[in-house]
Each structure stands twice: as structure tokens, then as C-alpha cells.
Amino acid sequence: MPRRTTAALLGLALVSPLLLSSSAVAAPVRRVAPYDLDGDGHPEQVVGAPGLQVGTAKGAGGLVVLPASTKGLSTAGWTITQASAGVAGEPVADGHFASAVASADFDHDGYADLAVGATGEVGTVTLLHGSSKGLTGARSTVLRRAGDAGPDGFGASLVAADLDGDGWADLAVGAPYADPVEVPAEDHGASGSVTVLQGGPAGFSTARSSVLHGRRSGTDRDLLFGSSLATGDVDGDRRSDLVVASRGLAAGDGHAHAGSVTVCPAGGGCVPVPSSRGYPGLASLAVGDVSGFGRDEVVVGLVPAPGARSTEGGRVVTLAFSGTGAGLRAKETVLTRSTKGVPGSNHAGDDFGAALALGDVDRDGFADLLVGAPGEAVGGRRDAGRVTLVLGGRKGYRTSGNKAYDQDTRGVPGSAETRDRFGATVSLLDHDADGRLDLTVGAPGENGSGAVTTLDGSGAGLTTRGARTFGLERSGSSTPADAAFGAVLGGSPADPLLARRSVVDLLRQDWRHVPGVVGDGTRLRVRSTGKSIVEQDGGGGRPNPPVLLGTHLVAPEDFAVSVSFADVTADASLSVQDSPPVVADEFRIEPAGVRLTLRGDDLRVSVFDGSPRQDVRDPRPTQEEHVRLADPAAELSVRRSGDRLEIASGGRTVASLPRGDVFGSGRLWLGLSSEEGSFTVGSFTAAAPGGSTLAAAGPASARAQPSSAGLQALATRARPGFLVGAAVAPGPLAADADYADAFVSGFGALTPENVMKPQALSPRRGEYTFEEADALLDLARSKGVAVHGHTIAFSEAMPRWMQELPSGTEEERRASAAALLDYVTTVVTHFQGRLASLDVLNEPFDVDQGTSLQENTWYRVFGPGYPAVVSKAVHDADPDVRQFINENGADVPGPRQDALLRLARDTNAQGGHIAGVGLQAHVYDRGTDAISADDLATTFRNVGRAGLVARISENDVTDAEGRKAQASQFATVLKGCLRSTVCVSYTTWGVDDRYDWWLDDDGDLHQGHDLLFDGGKPTPAYDAVRKVLAG
């Protein structure tokens, strides 16, 4: 490591190959509506054609995206199938890709994503990502139901919603034909199931999924559970509840097993909706607040089965709920074509209720109902189809102002024809972003291949003026028969709360990689870890509390973060910060933010302004208050309210301070810690007032991907097996998209800067905090990046317990030796199989460029032969990891280089396993540190003659003599390493100058400019390195 102290953000990154997220430092994540696939504020119209022929695969299925703008929908659509570029899977006959769709910004990148169901022989769901250019097949993923493969209908229904209140959209997937059962006197049926995939910053995980079932026995069993899905706030708690429809089974003379409705509240459990007759012919489902009471109603469409003895043309039942949990009860309201105020008349076979959509069409605050009747005859033409708009109001549905639309309605394009089935699907989205919902109607029988018609919203509701019809031929696709274009529409029903979510449950975030914090989803247990920062001379020891960096909050406006502490044994702290802290192995730069520390009934409120002028060795708050609390167990809140910071206890403001520059970044980073004890967190939420933006966001590294034009890709082409790496910290990878993209896209090897040093891994004897290092290694694995561990034995960055191990007597040395060897074995065993190589010794020689071993703890306990002891212990724990001794000042020929090579040989002669040496190649003063090509060539010859390999381990170069000289030195070092087979890898000590901080001898803080990137932009040194690798 460098002699001057550099720093990087401390944090973590959590990633998954399924679905990843991104958050740039400078640009807050936008809240984006479902189906806004290009993030421009205009939701696209997704149209499914599950019968589309793709190549020779009949019924393979596909979808068409109709772009939206201020002018509404465009004919310049594009078709996506499983044969499209980048889309996972492949088209298969009768695969029925696009049998269902659902949309949300699953990865919080400001672009809505799309889940696409395919109900072929084996049901699947494909995840497609939005981007600035719209929907793309890049990074697409196919999900399947766990368990037996078969015709389960997995993907027949989909809905996206934040079902657990953590601020991330979850995905519910219906599999109505799962779990076949025998039905007496009827055909075979199926119980069905619904899989709920929990979303988060790491994306969807099958490990975090849950499977819901309906009633699976008795006369009131639920058959085809999951045939339809919707979400909304049914119980009035401002959280999204899942509503599941079971279609039931129909007999030729009636309904042997009627359909049913089940509500699964956000708090857990599922409640069947009581009904004396059930819901025979259940065909559709929607959720919305029709009456404006603050609870969403559930609306189901009931259509008599073909051949059933019924003169009814269908009915719509609206369920208004009261009670909560198992006490949910529903009051039914029935609409038919015979209901007062509903246009038209009732006829058998109308299929009134086959499709439903809810939305406030006339903008009066009440959800209005669109009802499709695709079987209705128009002008004597059977199955021509019609759509009816029924307005909502305070007393329920209104009896006036309701309207019906068909293809013979004035202004609606085309004409009503037999088997068009206009109204088979309906959808409401504000395509032109004018604040008015637009209606899209599917007619999958139109012209044998299908079509959709759109009616714009207007001040009076819907207007036929400017209505348009879209077919497959207008999307650039062919028009084979039976494509069923329009059989599926993206849009409502959607989660009414998803776009306006203003509460994030922080207990449900992923705390696994935060030291000292253990959560089960319902509470957090926090304990003191003793993590601290020790200075090079062994002094200091100021606390270094961890921060949650796998998830943070985007809050550009007013917000409140609230927490309740219980079982406090000594102290409990909450920090809410503008950015992660900058942490080196000797100091910590506190960001702007607020820290609340509770001891007994004393609440200390500390405000930091993030100024670089602070004494980083002992940062002090710019404002501090102590408040005596009447009830220490009451909920505590940190609120931004305009230009004030307010601290509240039990809802009462106990401190109000000027906000200043605090919380100006629009992002919130959270930490929980205790210096001396432990405590429990029973509730932990973030909320924003109505109209304000609040969202959870994941690590910036998640979306970054290796590039075929990156430095590692060039190196592989120039010299296969040669690695180009950088030293990194988890924090910048989580918080800075520029940094994350620069590293992941360009480099093929990773060295942890600080999180694998002893003071980070074992702040207390016998206790280990691997969480941050594990997060970094998990990221490396997900990106295909090799890891070089750093470090085991080191004179600096040692925890107090390690520094103070006694060594005065033989007995003390034996006990201390056991403690040190236990540390080595525990650490290396923990990381076994995840490290390609490891610095078993770091900077063993004295700090004045001499050749004598530092008489550190390891030396005092084991004597001058300690390198061999450490090397053997590492080998015993992980015989496959390649061992190195890392040193500065040994990159040019001379006594220090000779001493390093001699130490490696002697260690091996004593039974050690040293494979090579790390040459740090720090060039901070070109007058004393410059490395010439000739010196480097000689160095590598010397290393090779010693029977060792070398790695350039920490290269960085000052720009004090200009960028051109800096670039030349970088190029010289890399070129020398690349040309020698002795040199196996090249690593820079850091990625971006944004995180290159150091202290001078007087303790003053300075920012360096020594790396390949500066503020997210490549420097001339980067260009020079790239040129070397490109030959």
C-alpha cells in the first residue's frame, strides 16, 4: 500500500445474475410509471400476440411495443419474440410467449421493465429491461416454477407490486394448472398456485420467493388458483395487497366448481372472500377505489361458460371490503346490462365482463370501470364486441353519463365485424402524459390476426376524436392468421400504489452484509462490533460504524426516517447521511448528515456538514444538542422539512436545526450501530409527504458489465492469462456509477483496499466481521473478476487486541502465537476458494526504505522466521491460493529488492509457499520514485532468477509534472510487465482520483491525482495504458 494514506468509500455491493440495479451519484433515480420503457414520461402500449408464428414455430407468440409521446401512440412499433436479439430462450411451437405481461421499474434505473409470460408445455416468465432506447433483450432472464416441469400455466397471469413494503416491486406469477387434482364427476382440474418473487437491490431471487395456494380440499376448494391476479389496498393500510382469482371449472350444464377470490394482505396470510354461491364463470379481475373511501374495491367479471343454460350475457361483481386480516368481509354490488344506467341490453353470449379495467377516466377522484363484452352482437354481427364505460362515484357506480363504444361508434376506426371480439381486452394508460387516461381496446379476431384501437382521454372522459387502430402490419410484422394480436394488453389492472409509493420499510432491506446487524424481516438486532480506525503508530482507535450500502434511498425532497429502539443495553445510534463516509486505514471523512445516539433518556443529536476542512483524525459535528426524552422507547424520527432539520420523539418535535448543506444530494445512506452494547430495532421506515419522491435504490455496480473493449479484454488478446486489476472499496462501487462502470467494464482483477485488513476483519479477538469483504467478493464473482487478497501479516491496520498481544515470556508468546494462528486459519478458511492469490505479508521491511524486518507483533511473537510460519498456516488453510510478499521501494534494483527476494527464498527454504513478490510501483516523486524501462527489465530478470513470479501490485503516479509525464510513467510500467513472462498481473492502487485522499505529516488532508480516472473521466494515463495493451 502507499506510504501516504489513501482512502476509499466504505460500503458494500450486493448483486445477482437475475436482475440488477444502478444508481449514479449525480443523477437521482427517477420515479417511472409502469410501461414507460424508455423513461421519457410516456408509457408505451405493450400488445401481446400469443398466437404469433415465429419462423416455423406456430403459436410461438410475441409482443409489439407501440411507442408513446405527447402525440399519443405511434405506428412505428417493434416486435419482440424469443428469436429477437438478446432475448433469452427460443421460440417453440405453441409456446404462447406474451400470454401475460406486467411492468414496473424492477431495478430502479429510471426505466420500466417488462415481465412476459409464456404458457407453453412448460410455463416461463421472461424479464426484459427498459432503457433509454426502449425495451431491450439485453440481460434478459427466464424464470420457471420450482418443482416438477409440466403444463402448469406458469406465467398465465402476472402482476407487479410492492407487496412487502420495502420500496421494490415484487412479481407475482400465476400457475393455475399446477398441482393437478381429481374432480368428481368432472374433468381433471388443478389447484393452481401463485409464486411471489421478492424484488430488491439484488433483483429477484428464487431463494426469496414464496408460493401461495388456495383451499385445496373440501367442497369449497379453489380450482385454477392464480388464473387472474391484481393488487391494491383492499384493507386500507396503504400497502399493496395481492388479490388472486380462481377461475373454477365449468360443466356443460352449469358450473360444477365456481370461481373464487382470495385476498392476501401485505401483512401476511391469505383470506378467501366469503360468498354463498362463489363466482361462476370468473373471467377477469381488477382493483381500484370506485367509491373514494380509501379502500380499493375488487371487481370480477363473470361470463357464463359456452353451452351453459343461461340467458344472462355476463355480470360484473364489485366487492367493497370492511375489516382486516382474517376478518375481511365483502359487500357485493352486481352490474349487468340490465342495471339502471348501463348502456345496452342483456343477451346470452355477450360475455359482458370478459375484460375489466379501472382508472379515473373523468378525473373526479373515483375509479371508473371499463367492461369488455367481446361476444356482443353489433348490428346483427355476432362476436363483434363492445366496451362499456361505467363511471364511479361516492355512492358507487353512477346511473348517468355512462357510455358504450364499438367499431360502429362514430369516430372509432373500422367497422364492427363478425368474430372481431372487440373488447376482449381493455387497458388504461396515460400515453401522451396529459394527465388523462387513454383507453386501448383489443380485438384479437380482427381480420383473422387481431388489432387494437386507442381512444384518447379528454376533459369529458374519453373521446373518439383522433382514435386509431393498430394491426400487426402497422408494427412492421407479418400478419399470419390466429396471431391473436390484442389478446393481451399491458396496462391496467396494475398496482394502484406502485407509482405513488411513499413509504419504504427499511427492516425488509438486505442487511446481510452490514457488520453487527442481523435481521429477519420483522426486526433487526444490532450489536457493537468494535470496528475502529487505528493510526500507523498504533494510536487512535476512533469508531468506524458500518453503513448499509446495498440499498439507499432516493429522496430529493422532504422526508422522514423513523426508527424505534428497544432492549438498549448501552447505546443505540442511527445515522442518516448524504453519502457514504470516506474511510482509509487511518482516517474517516464524515459526510454531511445527522446521527442520533440514545443513552438512557439522553438523545445526542450530531450534525455534520461534510466539509473537507474537518480534522479527519477526529471529526467533530458542526452542531450538537442533547435532549432529555420523556419516553426513550418512543419512535425517533429525522425529518427534512424545507430548510429545517427536525428531530421528533413519539411524533413530537424535540429539536429543530437549520438544514444548511445537509441532505442536498437527494440520497440517503443509513447506518445502525452501538459503541458498547446492543439493541433491537422494532420498526424502521422512510416516508415522504404526498407528492414528494421517495424510492429505494440499489448498488451502482449492479448494472455495470464487463466490456469487450475494456482494458482486461485488450490484455487477454495481447497476452492470454494476463490480468489487469485495480484496488477497490465496496463503497464507491455501490455509490458511484462512474466508478463502478469504469472498474467493472475495464478491469479483470480486484484487490480489496481496506476491507480485508486485520482491523476490518477482526476488530475484537475471536470475533470476525467478514460482511463487507464478502460483499466485495460476491461482486467479483458475479462479474467474472479474479480477486487478489490483501493482506494477512502487516505492521499497520491492526486492531488493538493484535497490537497488544504480549510477548515478554515464553508462555505469553505461545498464547499469542495461538491467537495469531487462529486468526490466519479462520480468515483464510473463510475465503477459501474465492481468492486467486493473497498477500501473506505486506510491507515487512522498515518504513525508511531499509532492509530490516519491522519488529511488529508477528516478529515479537514468532521471531524473524515469522514469514514462514504465516505462509505455512495459509497453505494449510488453502493450499490452492497463490502466495505473495508485497513491498514498496523494491520495484527497482537495489538493496531493498535484494532483501525482498532473499526473504521470499528463505521463507520457502523454511517450509513456506511463496510464489512471488508484489512490486507496488508507487511514483509520488519522480525525482526519487521514477521507474525506468531498463530498471524494470532488470527487476523482472532478478525475480525470475529467484524462481519467483512478480505482480505490479499498486501502481499509481503523481501528476505533479503534468499529465503527459504521468501517462508516460504508467505506460512504461505496464509495458515492462506485459513484456515479461515473469510478471503475471498489473494492478493500479485505486480507480478514480475522486477517492484519492491522503494526509501530510502535519495531518492536513489533500486530494491526489494519481490514477487512470478523474471524476469519472479517463485521463491521458488511461489512454496511454490502453495504447500499450492494444499493441
UniProtKB/TrEMBL annotation:
Keywords (alphabetical) are:
Carbohydrate metabolism, Glycoprotein, Glycosidase, Hydrolase, Polysaccharide degradation, Repeat, Signal, Xylan degradation
Domain GH10: from-to ranges = 708-1028
GO process annotations (BP): xylan catabolic process
**GO MF:** endo-1,4-beta-xylanase activity
- Region forming the signal peptide: 1-26
Q: Which InterPro entries match?
A: FG-GAP, GH, GH10, GH10_dom, Int_alpha_beta-p, Integrin_alpha_N
Q: Where is this region: Disordered?
A: 441-460
Q: Which SUPFAM superfamilies match?
A: (Trans)glycosidases, Integrin alpha N-terminal domain
- One Pfam family from the record: Glyco_hydro_10
| Keyword Transcription tagged | no
Reactions catalysed, semicolon-separated, are: Endohydrolysis of (1->4)-beta-D-xylosidic linkages in xylans
EC nos: 3.2.1.8
Lineage top rank: taxon = Bacteria
UniProt family annotation: Belongs to the glycosyl hydrolase 10 (cellulase F) family.
**Name of protein:** endo-1,4-beta-xylanase
